[in-house]
Amino acid sequence: MTKLSVNINKVATLRNARGGNNPDVEKVALDCEAFGAEGITVHPRSDERHIRYADVLALRPILRTEFNIEGYPSKEFIDLVLKVKPHQVTLVPDAPDQITSNSGWDTKNNLSFLTELMDTFGEAGIRTSIFVGTDTEMIEYAAKAGADRVELYTEPYASQYGKNREAAIAPFVEAAKVTRKLGMGLNAGHDLSLENLAYFHENIPWVDEVSIGHALICDALYLGLKKTIEEYKNCLR
Q1: Is 190 a catalytic residue?
Q2: Can you tell me the distance from the alpha carbon of 236 to that of 68, in angstroms, rounded to the nearest whole number?
Q3: In whole angstroms, how far apart are CA 94 and each of 56, 65, 103?
Q4: 209-212 and 3-7 as β-strands: parallel, antiparallel, unpaired?
Q5: Which of 57, 91, 154, 169 has its CA at a distance of 20 to 30 angstroms from the CA of residue 177?
Q6: Is 87 known to be catalytic?
Q7: Of the listed 70, 151, 201, 209, which one is catalytic?
Q8: Which of the residues 43, 50, 66, 151 is marked catalytic?
């Protein structure tokens, strides 16, 4: 079964816009679990414009499902992950000032760097995932680095879905097959939504986990959080 991990960054963005603790990030995370989410994802950035390092520390002991921390592996990020020991760490090649992730790793040119990180996190008992595009070589080098999983960057799929969904999904199916052949687990995320998720899962039913934040929180404004999570989980059945 494909797990749904809810990225709660946007909840923290809303809280930070006004100050105080409304909405309560910890309560929302627990509610997501209660409503059926199998995981919670956070992406702390150095400027703490949404999820703060303090949030990450507070969430770890109260969550009952899988905890996934994603981000660029700066020294501060590495130290945080090793301290918190989430179930999974997902490495993304974001610059500190990026609005959101917009590409996968060049795993070939960063092989030694990523290999060292895989060893560091692996020794701490943390499952590792590397954010990649659909380029077969990049997936192969993620395997060489020792990653447990890769997370496919799905924005290209989402942006092309409305024009030609068969063409949009094709490179992702191929990438998913290569990943499986190499013995790695498979995650996916970025711009997956109620519009395109079911078709993605229909074509790649062996995906282990999808991480969804922005679209899910937007849908929750109209449907409510409980109904929204139910609808996303329906897409994965």
Answers
A1: yes
A2: 19
A3: 19, 26, 8
A4: parallel
A5: 91
A6: no
A7: 70
A8: 43
Does the pTM exceed 0.90?
A: yes
Q: How many contiguous H segments (helices) and E segments (strands) does the chain have?
A: 11, 8
Q: Give the Cα separation of 214 and 200 in Å (integer).
A: 17
DSSP conformation letters of 180-192: HHTT-EEEEESS-
Residue 190 pLDDT level (bands cut at 50, 70, 90): very high
Check 33, 50, 66, 190 and give the catalytic one.
190
Residues 6+ apart with CB under 8 A from 115: 144, 145, 146
Neighbours of 141 (CB within 10 A): 22
pLDDT band for position 102 (cuts 50, 70, 90): low
**pLDDT tens digits for 109-136?**
999 999 999 999 999 999 999 999 999 9
- Count the helix, strand and coil residues of the chain and give each as a percent rounded to the nearest 5: 45, 15, 35
pLDDT in tens, 158-189: 999 999 999 999 999 999 999 999 999 999 99
